[in-house]
Amino acid sequence: MIRAYKFLLRPTVRQAQALAEMLRDHCSLYNGALQERRDAWRHVSKTSVTYGGQSAQLKEIRAFDPERQGRWSFSSQQATLRRLDKAFAAFFRRVTSGEAPGYPRFRGGNWFDTVDFPKDGDGCRFDSTPHDAVTRVRFQGVGHVRVNQHRPVAGRVKTVSVKREGRKWFVVLSVERDRPEPLPATGSAVGIDLGIANFLADSNGAFVSNPCHGRRAAAKLQAAQQALSRFPRCKAKDRTANHRRAVQKVAQLHGKVKRRRLDHAHKTALGLVRAHDVIAHEDLKIRNMSKAPAPRPDPDQPGAFLPNGAAAKAGLSKSINDAGWGVFLTILHAKAESAGREVIAVNPRNTSRTCPECGHTAKENRPTQEKFHCLACGHTAHADTVGATNVLRAGLVPRNANPA
Predict the structure, then answer these.
(1) Same domain for 130 and 269?
(2) Using one digit for the tens of pLDDT, what is the confidence trace for 327-359?
């Protein structure tokens, strides 16, 4: 089982400067490799440059520029080139499948915030058993950086990454560990229905309110972004002190919303995992649900478009993204795996339109967003509770089916 740990770093001023230089040089390596691929395709008869060829050039690059490239870990530079190769692989996959291609772009200094080390001990070393009660991680070219280790690391460290978020630095560990002891069985199964008015409704009739962290912070974010918009766009090195403070203010507010959303998702998922052996949820296509509607050209007026409900859809998409369904489901699956619980994803089709008493399915069974009233048998309930009940039943059908 692979698990990740994220700890806050406490670098000195010189170490923070060295970490920033490491990000800058890896960003330069990434952009240089991308430029080489672009030039080879455009000017050398559409020749493709592979990761193997670029990795073989690292020795010469490090010897040519020892101060900027030669001081860092060879394996971390290979990881940066491999990161570019994955971007191109995803690009060609999207082209083949007919999706929007999204050609890999050059990275600015503010958009390149992570350096990966594929193996603990190769260019980095995480000291999990400190002798002076202070945990440290060593990075080649930086030194031993103090780590605020708020919990023990269980397992063997496989990979190490250093990440910058605003003005803070973090170390992310990928750890291989044995499967822990499962939680005691409760004999309970539950279905959940994710929503916007309520973040979650279960088949037992309970509700979890939607905290709407993004909406609560909208006023402060709007004010901070308006203050930032008064400064002209320029490179980071050309920003004034007031400009830098405005950028940091926006980043701090977004980080606070992100941490609150993660905290709510962790606590909600942990409560479900502790209370139930089986958890069924809808297999939602969140990206499609939050996608902007396609434009509708007007056949009578060339160049004009018909109304497509984009304004209303934008509000719904914003609420879906603010709820953080995808983050919650990812956390739920991870916690369930560690606790020995079973999580089942079911088809969400007609789960909120089907009567759990008689099985009658009709759009008219749900006259409002919250009310469910079956036209066949007269059963009434909260629509989200009905959806969660149907999700649970659909999830238990294949689980309880007799093998052929």
Answers:
(1) no
(2) 999 999 999 998 999 999 999 998 989 999 888
Residue 94 near residue 101, CB atoms below 8 Å: yes
Tokens of 279: 């958890």
Same domain, 149 and 265: no
Say which residues have a Cβ less than 8 Å from residue 40's Cβ, sequence separation at least 6: 47, 48, 49
For the chain, what is the domain count?
2
Out of 116, 146, 176, a domain closes at 176
Compute the average pLDDT of residues 239-252.
91
Q: Which residue has the tokens 């493709």?
A: 48
Three-class DSSP category at 55:
helix
Is residue 114 within 8 A of residue 98, CB to CB? The reply is: no
The residues with which 371 forms a beta bridge, in sequence order, are 382
Residues 211 and 91 in one domain: no
End-to-end CA distance of the chain: 31
**122 domain-assigned:** yes
pLDDT given for residue 404 in this prediction: 45
Separation CA 193–CA 262 (nearest Å): 19
Q: How far is CA 7 from CA 126, 183, 247, 366, in A?
A: 11, 26, 24, 47
Measured between alpha carbons, how far is 377 from 400 in angstroms, rounded to an integer?
A: 27
CB 47 within 8 A of CB 41: yes
Closest CA to 343 of 325, 326, 324, 329: 329
CB atoms within 10 A of CB 10: 16
Estimate to the nearest angstrom the gap between the alpha carbon of 171 and the chain centroid. 17
Q: Which residues contact 397 (CB under 8 A, 6 or more apart)?
A: none
Give residues with Cβ within 8 angstroms of 219, minimum separation 6: none
Q: Are strands 156-165 and 143-148 parallel, antiparallel or unpaired?
A: unpaired
